[in-house]
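Ticket #314: bound-state structure for D-malate.
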Amino acid sequence: SPNQRSTILVSEKLGEAGLELLRSFGDVECLYDLSPDELCSKISSCDALIVRSGTKVTRQVFEAAKGRLKVVGRAGVGIDNVDLQAATESGCLVVNAPTANTVAAAEHGIALLAAMARNVAQADASVKAGKWQRSKYVGVSLVGKTLAVMGFGKVGSEVARRAKGLGMHVIAHDPYAPTDRARALGVELVSFNQAMETADFVSLHMPLTPTTSKVFNDETFAKMKKGVRIVNVARGGVIDEDALLRALESGIVAQAALDVFTEEPPKESKLVQHENVTVTPHLGASTKEAQACVAIEIAEAVVGALKGELSATA
Ligand code: MLT
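RESOLUTION: The complex was predicted; output attached.
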């Protein structure tokens, strides 16, 4: 009946304020670490599903839902873990939280940029191992260097703003670049190749789509300045990880700092273990503040969709 309360499945950790909002509207079940099979058997009794990046919402999930599932809420920005085609075919909305973790992601990008340039992670491990290697860990300066921001959307432009504050020369590439935003921040918009040829540092901020998948490949690395340093807090899949390893081994890429991986957790241990690579476990959106905001933003969007207030796919 139309008065029946909605059943909302939350498959990854969500902030309490968001859960409360959901509970005021429906019956909320939090089940973390479900296997794909468990998710499929659970989903046919749910009206809404809320995920972060760890749950793959595949065609199988939408088929198993047998038409009951009305909305999938992605507690974050990227919806690359949701099969949008299958969602559309089964009449299910997909909504995301497009703004709540922008600054957290940008701050993590800057944290990795600075940590990488000064070998913070490597030096920390060395001191803790009882060593005192001051000459081994001489870093490089950020001031005056050229940073290419690849993807000049919400996160990319916040990274650019912060990098300007560090005295960097910031250029950006984005096929949909908002020129007024670039002008306002004093950022020069350039072509993909220009960015690759002139950057000392490259920071990735594009979504993972069929077009951006592995755009950083052997051919791309070959265009870069020798000794370039790369930060990725976007999606692992935009980098061909084997090609990155080759570029590190050949010295084209001096260092990389990676928060995201093609497969998470990553299997490719040679890249992860490389001494010039700094890694974190997909922490870009993980601040207390951002997670509190994301939970509310996604809960509002999901409740809106269940009430029939939304009609567009994210
Ligand atoms: C995002 O796309 O917003 C992030 O990947 C969020 C997350 O940590 O799941």
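RESOLUTION NOTES: The mean pLDDT is 96.
TICKET STATUS: resolved
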